Amino acid sequence: MEKKRVITLSQFIADEQAKFPESSGDLSKIFRDIKLASKIVNRDVRKAGLVDILGAHGSINVQGEEVKKLDVLANNEFIASIQAGGDCCALISEEEDYIRHMNPDAKYIVAIDPLDGSSNIDVNATIGTIFSIYRRISPKGSPVTEADCLQKGTNQVAAGYVIYGSSTMIVYTTGQGVNGFTLDVSIGDFCLSHPNIQIPQDGKIYSVNEGNFPVIPLEVREYIKYCKTPDASTNRPFSARYIGSLVADFHRNLLKGGIFMYPSTETAPTGKLRLMYECNPMAFILEQAGGKAIDGVGRIMEVEPTELHQRVPVYMGSTKMVEKLETYLNSSEAAQ
Length: 336
Ligand code: AHG
Ligand code: MN
Ligand code: MN
Hints:
Elements: H1 9-18, H2 26-46, E1 56-60, E2 66-68, H3 69-85, E3 88-93, E4 100-101, E5 108-116, E6 127-135, H4 146-149, E7 158-164, E8 168-173, E9 178-184, E10 189-194, E11 205-207, H5 218-228, E12 239-240, H6 246-256, E13 259-262, H7 275-288, E14 292-294, E15 314-317, H8 319-329
One manganese (II) ion (MN) binds at residues 113, 116, 246, 278.
């Protein structure tokens, strides 16, 4: 029997780059840096219970959230690796108040959620890293501006996530489809395991923090009621699945089909999730995989960013499920 050839992430990226002979290779180098940091974070996550890296760091981040030790560790690892690589001119991170300026002669900007799902760290549930890459607008060599960092999601050059689950994977897109690579710890490399990921057009999983039910918009409540109403012809009631780590909830729905929702609430009118390093990268991946991501009004990737840590309501997943939700959002009377 012929042995199947293993394609590593590095090989895959090199092959992709070779299709564009005019490319500088800088983007590939950023992937190399992200890959290295994710392996280091993976190592630390895997022994989190054995060493003193569980629990609170003792500080509060710019968004008023308690910072965990692994948040800090992951932030430091990704920044160190990307900075040392020298191919990034600026970075924005969930854990940093301001733009972090790097090599002014480089052309790429990275937005990152270094550790997604912080509330799950201490309980051994799946966590992740989310990243998004843009090309600067201002010329190389000049100081990076806020406008460089606040570009619409449609300008993303690449986006991806690392999921530290029962295995560790990198899933990413550069606008040529979505591919997933699983870390083989025995060889220390990510290997292509999920080529050309396509989200099922329809699904039967809905993912939302239902504890917020009384404080989310009426139209979304009506859609959730629809998800729960028995109907054999549409496979309802759907299954509720919600871990509380965006990466984990998103990854499951990407592979199985489903809808993820984080609507506005009475106390958080723009929702909870951040546009630049949570919603936009996931929206890019999703659209590349044949799914849909909206903020309730239009495409997530067309939201005009105004702040580094801006939050947006988000509804994303299998196209048919998102479109069904839209029938509710677009009518004051709940559609049937
Ligand atoms: P982070 O850990 O990076 O701050 O992100 C947490 C986010 C996201 O991962 C998840 O989808 C959401 O918070 C869960 O929020 P609730 O606990 O409000 O459901
Ligand atoms: Mn997050
Ligand atoms: Mn985070």
